[in-house]
Design goal:
295 residues, alpha+beta, Type Iii Antifreeze Protein Isoform Hplc 12, two-stranded antiparallel sheet, 22% strand
């Protein structure tokens, strides 16, 4: 049997070529349209148009699945937290600066002039003017009893009771021989001893003896004839304490402490046991003229 062909296409209606063409058209249509449950085609998704504003596009629009959506949300949350932390840090920094400035102003307003050691002062050394200086110190950092600028002249000439390092605040307990000082041993010169003698109104010059006065020490001993024998135990003695503490007056029933040599100290003690010890006050002009000659 001979089958007729025309241009290589089957003459039968609905031949292979026609069916292939219809199948291809149908596949193209299915790819370009997405039918809904009601059969209406749904156009394919298209990318959002680019915006001309400064705001960045929403990352959720480009999400391709649930994982992308969650990732985008986490990134947005992290960015928000970072911004919040940055704002909090800036606020705290500003508060810290303001608080520090307020504290500095409060400290400056509470400064007080304080006497301090300008150099190292060894124990027993006589304090000179160039060894002292006045600095501003906050009251909360001042030691108890620290001396101010007005006490500078009074400290000069005293003796250091202990080693005083440079920069240390000066208090009465550190310097002997000043008002408020209580270290008698530091006020004594090398080779001298302190002896305390009980006095009354008669033997203590009616309470007129004061610290740093010069006195003559007299031993009063009774004799067999009933008369008293007067013996000068010490021609000149420096009074280092009068009364119960330095700077106080000797009153009735009080005491006077003098600085004498070891031999004179023994003689004073013997006179106390044998009889009485009396003082006579030396004129200031004579004491100054004689200088340091005592004993």
């Amino acid at each position: 049997m001979i089958e007729a062909r025309t241009n290589g296409v089957s003459p039968r209606p609905g031949g292979f070529a026609a069916r292939a063409a219809r199948g291809a058209d149908h596949r193209v249509a299915r790819q370009g349209e997405m039918p809904t449950s009601k059969g209406a085609p749904i156009p394919p998704p298209t990318a959002p148009a680019a915006t001309t504003g400064s705001a960045p596009p929403d990352p959720l629009l480009f999400a391709k699945g649930p994982q992308d959506v969650r990732r985008a949300k986490r990134l947005a949350l992290a960015a928000a937290l970072s911004a919040a932390v940055a704002v909090a840090a800036v606020g705290y920094g500003a508060w810290a600066v303001v608080s520090a400035n307020a504290q500095v102003d409060a400290v400056k307003a509470d400064l007080a002039p304080t006497l301090v050691a300008a150099t190292n002062i060894a124990a027993g050394d006589t304090v000179s003017l160039d060894q002292l200086e006045v600095v501003e110190v906050p009251r909360s950092f001042r030691v108890e009893g620290a001396l101010g600028a007005d006490a500078r002249e009074g400290v000069v000439g005293g003796r250091a009771a202990v080693d005083i390092p440079s920069g240390a605040q000066i208090a009465p307990g550190l310097i002997a021989g000043i008002a408020g000082g209580d270290h008698l041993a530091a006020a004594l010169e090398a080779g001298m001893e302190a002896v305390t003698v009980s006095v009354d109104t008669e033997t203590g010059v009616a309470g007129q003896i004061r610290a740093f006065d010069t006195v003559r020490v007299i031993a009063v001993e009774p004799a067999a004839s009933g008369e008293s024998v007067l013996t000068t135990v010490c021609e000149r003695a420096l009074v280092v304490s009068a009364g119960s503490g330095q700077g106080e007056l000797a009153v009735s029933g009080g005491s006077v402490t003098i600085a004498v040599s070891p031999e004179e100290a023994d003689a004073v003690r013997e006179a106390q046991y044998a009889g009485r010890v009396s003082f006579s006050l030396v004129a200031l002009a004579d004491a100054v003229g004689e200088g340091g000659e005592r004993g």
